């Protein structure tokens, strides 16, 4: 797609476009797995709807911010906000996929942390992060997603419902983005 050449915001739009393609691929893979394994369709439909809504919201935010940047003097501030929103949206989608994966599909790639003796971390709902020898391996599903999951605060990981989980996840991620 051709965008107006207005600097870093055009790059942010390209990032969102690439993220949307990746999310569509994730949705296609999840749907294919459901068809093959006859898994719980309701959970997958909810995940697909959430992913589509998140992508649409991210694209709308970036488009609105692009229009504002094109007409406003505060372009650098808006560009930073756009990048923060895009990053937060992508992390939310990744974590929601991790939650669904732990319950439904690919659960054999994610292992719950179970200490050998009684520790306070027993009830933290942590995942095991496999050891890797290459930096590239840290991007693998089985390594990268547990890293993100374990970095969340305990009250987020142990949320009682999906709605409460999403709400506390977004709150934590926006707080993190303001701290940096």
Automatic annotation (TrEMBL):
Keywords tagged on the record: Membrane, Transmembrane, Transmembrane helix
Keyword Transmembrane helix: yes
Chain segments annotated as transmembrane: 20-36, 43-68, 80-107
Domain of life: Eukaryota
Name of this chain's protein: ABC transmembrane type-1 domain-containing protein
Source species: Elysia marginata
């Amino acid at each position: 797609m051709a965008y107006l050449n207005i600097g870093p915001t055009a790059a942010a739009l390209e990032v969102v476009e690439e993220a949307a393609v990746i999310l569509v691929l994730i949705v296609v893979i999840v749907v294919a797995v459901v068809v093959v394994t006859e898994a719980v369709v309701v959970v997958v439909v909810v995940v697909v709807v959430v992913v589509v809504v998140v992508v649409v919201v991210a694209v709308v935010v970036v488009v609105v911010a692009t229009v504002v940047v094109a007409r406003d003097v505060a372009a650098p501030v808006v560009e930073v906000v756009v990048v923060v929103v895009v990053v937060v949206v992508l992390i939310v989608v990744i974590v929601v996929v991790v939650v669904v994966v732990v319950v439904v599909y690919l659960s054999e790639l994610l292992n719950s942390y179970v200490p050998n003796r009684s520790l306070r971390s027993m009830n933290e709902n942590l995942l095991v992060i496999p050891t890797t020898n290459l930096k590239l391996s840290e991007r693998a599903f089985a390594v990268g997603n547990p890293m993100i999951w374990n970095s969340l605060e305990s009250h987020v990981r142990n949320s009682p419902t999906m709605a409460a989980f999403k709400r506390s996840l977004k709150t934590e991620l926006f707080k993190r983005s303001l701290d940096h």
